[in-house]
Amino acid sequence: MGSKNKQKRFRENETFDNVFQPTRSQLVDQVYEHKGNWNKNVFKNNNPLVLELGCGKGEYSVALAEKYPDKNFIGIDIKGARFWRGAKTATEKNMPNVAFIRTQIELVESVFAENEVDEIWITFPDPQIKYKRTKHRMTNSQFLKRYKTILKPDGIMNLKTDSEFMHGYTLGLLHGEGHEVLHSNNDVYRQDGSPEEVTSIQTHYESIYLEQNKPITYIRFKIN
């Protein structure tokens, strides 16, 4: 993507009512106004709050929001030029139940309050295969602790990935740390049992993976 195109998208993001871009100092200083008040301030209802972490173009967030109008969805990514697409689509379709936040996933506890979130989706994250990149894997122990803080006690986690490494790593970690695996499937389109929203929604990159005959895996779990 050219720099001019990126700048255009950044400027357009600033005009969208569904895009939020807190400063790092607001988050680090724990003074972000919407923390603990997303439903009250932004969605104006008490519906369940669902996050998509590392949302990319926001395709999954938008599709879930269309599918479940009685839930609120927030896609989070540090790259605003990517989720511009999802924000623009949601704006054009006048969808009141989806928003986007530009921030690092590491700061998620500064964006949401304890027990504020009902469900989290992680879709096709970078598996960070090299050992020295373990700390960046979005399902490592440190990240799971962050998610547990913002999730309600019965909150649900979802991991959908084309990486067999990421699937195996996460499954092993969950079993090793005593978390509750509710469902696991290492090829969702060839094996029955996955929730309907796992197989009925496909991102652009997921369709490419499927054309390459890469199995798509899924884990649904609770953090204990």
Q: How would you concisely characterize the structure shown here?
A:
The chain is an alpha/beta fold and 224 residues long. The chain has ten helices and eight strands. It is an enzyme of class 2 (transferase).
Measured by DSSP, the beta-strand proportion falls in 15-25%
The tally of beta strands, per DSSP, is 8
Secondary-structure class:
alpha/beta
Rounded Rg: 17 Å
Level of helix content?
A: 25-40%
By DSSP (H or I, 4+ residues per run), the number of helices equals: 10
Strand line-up of the largest beta sheet: 1-4-3-2-5-6-8-7
Q: Largest sheet, described in full?
A: 8 strands, mixed
**N-C termini distance:** 41 Å
> What's the mean pLDDT score?
95
Q: What letter string, H or E per element, gives the SSE order?
A: HEHHEHEHEHEHEHEHHE
Low-confidence stretches: none
Assign an overall shape: globular
SSE blueprint and pairings:
Blueprint: H1 3-13, E1 19-20, H2 24-28, H3 38-43, E2 49-53, H4 59-67, E3 72-77, H5 80-92, E4 98-102, H6 108-111, E5 117-123, H7 141-150, E6 151-161, H8 164-177, E7 180-185, H9 196-199, H10 204-211, E8 217-222
Parallel strand pairs: 1-4, 2-3, 2-5, 3-4, 5-6
Antiparallel strand pairs: 6-8, 7-8
Helix pairs in contact: 1-5
Summary keywords:
224 residues, eight-stranded mixed beta sheet, methyltransferase
